[in-house]
């Protein structure tokens, strides 16, 4: 009888351990494919040189002589940075370490937007990192708006294959006349072409680069089911190794003819370079891996949300 009880206890504990691993760690079973490291091609920009404080200045802390920053969310405010320049196309990246612990309702965003200049017809390219409840991991959400089309969000959501709270990981965007590509640790997870049915919803105006942390209790975690619990505040995100290379827009001239491309020591050109006009076969294979293994939501499959699907979904 004692042996039976011990076996029962052992298997019960083993079952609970397996359940905990399967629920809390969507990322554990997967090893990512090899891809070119685009983040090695471009120079890092010190945070204090490339950005200014956007909001919540008291919660922005510059570190290591301004080369990187911590952004905090507490009960008083979130915080954010905005690039000192506006860009029309380019490569934009940051190494980000997310807050550990319970973070439901917390949103960390690295994105491009021109809502300040075009409040009724703005463009936006979003990487949003959505906090988790007790049972689920952080989630990556990508989204694209064009000409104020905020009523038609083009969200896609992914789990990670790593724990984004343990160390810094790269989150990157290519935006040029050919396509928009979202990357995580140089793995492409989504491509949005500029041609065909995508052309009418393709961002076309110069944008600033933003990095923010804020309270998204109304929607971020399970549609707002789990709001921010400020008992666990402050929530601190670390931002490092920022990269912004592309056409710097001159607001005193016409947007499409006013940008001068920045040169890089590697000779890589994310705006006009042929290496950035299309994904390589290696990158396509990696993107297919990410989308088949880790994507769990796409607006193009949400028939309950759209009675008529956006044209690019057909």
Account of the protein in words:
About 15% of the residues lie in helices and about 35% in strands. With about 325 residues, it is mainly beta. The chain has an eight-stranded antiparallel beta sheet with strand order 1-4-13-6-7-8-9-16. Strands 2, 3, 5, 10, 11, 12, 14 and 15 form an eight-stranded antiparallel beta sheet that branches. The radius of gyration is 21 Å and the shape is globular. The termini are far apart.
Secondary structure blueprint with pairings:
Layout (H helix, E strand, L loop, with lengths): L1 H23 L22 H4 E5 L4 E4 L4 E6 L5 E5 L3 E11 L8 E8 L10 E7 L8 E7 L10 E3 L10 E7 L3 E6 L2 E7 L14 E8 L19 E14 L11 E2 L19 H13 L1 E4 L16
Antiparallel strand pairs: 1-4, 2-3, 3-14, 4-13, 5-10, 5-14, 6-7, 6-13, 7-8, 8-9, 9-16, 10-11, 11-12, 14-15
Structural class by helix and strand composition: mainly beta
- Radius of gyration over alpha carbons? 21 Å
Strand content: 25-35%
What is the β-strand count?
Answer: 16
Physical arrangement of strands within the biggest beta sheet = 1-4-13-6-7-8-9-16
Task: Note the main attributes of this structure.
314 residues; 8-stranded antiparallel beta sheet; 16 strands; disordered N terminus
Compose a concise summary of this entry.
The chain has 314 residues and is mainly beta. The protein is built from three helices and 16 strands.
